[in-house]
Automatic annotation (TrEMBL):
The keyword Signal applies. This is Polysaccharide biosynthesis/export family protein. Residues 30-104 form the Polysaccharide export protein N-terminal domain. Residues 1-23 form the signal peptide. InterPro entries: Poly_export, Poly_export_N, Soluble_ligand-bd. It comes from Hyalangium rubrum. Residues 112-163 form the Soluble ligand binding domain. It comes from the Bacteria. Keywords: Signal.
Length: 190
């Protein structure tokens, strides 16, 4: 069996074992929170009965979108409904009773970063609930030189958070707590 194939099956086995742990994994349920638009997301802005104002717009790195008649509008941090209301208010002097809908076409702002001794370091989209074990699997697993028991998750939550993690604890039969990742987390595998 090739080294790559063996590594693949090892990661699959670890993921299966992690799912069988006896202790509950800490869960973060954000289902009751509306989505907040982020930088680099792509939005569909539709103005009813006005095809010239309706368009697909990327959110710039500074968090703004640009539209005719409204100029620059801050989109980052707002819900699609909040942004639609602001665009509607800005269009009122020019359009009679504007009806605006904002739909998030592409979510590009929520990413995690995996660096160090993993096969494929880089940025990965955070789609739904992703755990540390899953992120390592996304990055192709550990290299031969990885020190899996000295992983650090760097979290920019205002507290300068660094979460030390021992991989052996995560996959132990005792069911170590897996870390649920948040947008912007960086996983460092020394």
């Amino acid at each position: 069996m090739s080294k790559t194939r063996a590594r693949f099956w090892a990661v699959v086995g670890v993921l299966l074992l992690a799912g069988c742990a006896h202790k509950p994994v800490a869960k973060v349920d954000n289902s009751d929170q509306p989505y907040r638009i982020g930088r680099e997301d792509v939005l569909d802005v539709a103005v009813w009965r006005d095809g010239d104002l309706s368009r697909t717009l990327p959110v710039r790195p500074d968090g703004y979108i640009s539209m005719p008649m409204t100029g620059d509008v801050l989109a980052a941090g707002k819900t699609p409904t909040e942004l639609a209301e602001e665009i509607k208010e800005r269009l009122k002097p020019y359009v009679q009773e504007p009806r605006v809908t904002v739909i998030v076409r592409e979510v590009n702002s929520t990413r995690i970063f995996v660096t160090g001794e993993v096969t494929n370091p880089g940025a990965y989209p955070l789609r739904g609930r992703v755990s540390l074990v899953q992120a390592i699997a996304l990055a192709g697993g550990f290299t031969d030189f990885a020190n899996a028991n000295r992983i650090v998750v760097i979290r920019n939550d205002g507290n300068g958070g660094q979460i030390p993690v021992r991989y052996s604890d995560l996959i132990s039969p005792d069911g170590g707590q897996d870390v649920v990742l948040r947008p912007g987390d960086t996983i460092v595998v020394p």
